[in-house]
Amino acid sequence: MVKRWYWITVMIGVGLILIGLLIYYLRSPYRAFRQIVSAIERKDIETVYEFVLDEEKQMGITKEVVSYVLEDILYKNAKMVRACRTPLEKIQGKVGDNFYRFYCGWVEGATGKPLPSFREITRGVMTLQIDLYHPTGRGWQMNFTKMALSYFALNFPQDQAGQVSRLYFQKWGISVIYERPSYIVIHGRIKYLWDKPRWRKLPP
Predict the structure, then answer these.
(1) Which 3 state secondary structure label does DSSP give 56?
(2) Model's pTM, two decimal places?
(3) Structurally, how many domains does the chain consist of?
């Protein structure tokens, strides 16, 4: 009888652990990152748009804008694209309790040839920065305007990135960049405040 209750207790404990791991996986920023990357590879604009920050949608980022941006920075370079490793992966990860930063390299889907980049930090592999936030009451969301800006900041020569990015952002109809929101530090941990967003207006 005692043994039976022992094994029942063990099974319940294992079940609770598995449920906890499943919940963690479903809420993991790494899972959200992989979903975004997979959607970009499949040209699934609908799914990519679902991850765009609500604040950016309210400021005019539509599915059409997302499609234009991805076409210019990825799809015009190759009919199919595939994610790959990038040297910048070594500095990615947790920035705050509700903010993770990822870097993703891109190659041609058919040949594996890296899409072009002209910065030493990327070792010639076109790289995008994907910032994921977890606003209160929402799932993980992507800072899309910052990802678009990273295309120029990480892959163009420094003396050209600013001018070229302004031309493209004007073409896309994007006039502001969503910067990371204000934050507080509690017991050494950074927590971002979603009621205090910060925007950076692009010069005309």
Answers:
(1) helix
(2) 0.81
(3) 1
